[in-house]
Amino acid sequence: MERVKRLAAENAVVVFSNSSCCMCHVVKRLLCGLGVNPTIYELDEESGGQELEDALLRLVEDGQAVPVVFIGGKFIGGLERVMSAHISGALIPLLKEAGALWL
What we know:
Elements: H1 2-9, E1 13-17, H2 22-33, E2 39-42, H3 49-59, E3 68-71, E4 74-77, H4 79-88, H5 91-98
Parallel strand pairs: 1-2
Antiparallel strand pairs: 1-3, 3-4
């Protein structure tokens, strides 16, 4: 869990993903489409990715280890929470506060 926290705190937006996951693709496209340049950790390609995935499973409520998004070092959640924040208008202010967006 400490490694997850450390990696999440190193950049404004961090996405823990799996390269073959369609939901991960959607969240990455959304963030990039908004002009964010997230740091992406593809767990299936990372050394120690399984340990990271196990730690993320303890964090999430729905049993899906990926995608998991951190903004400003804070756990946001998976695709459903990110999309909900986007639709409600809460995502852009979070991204600006974290320094991931300037406009």
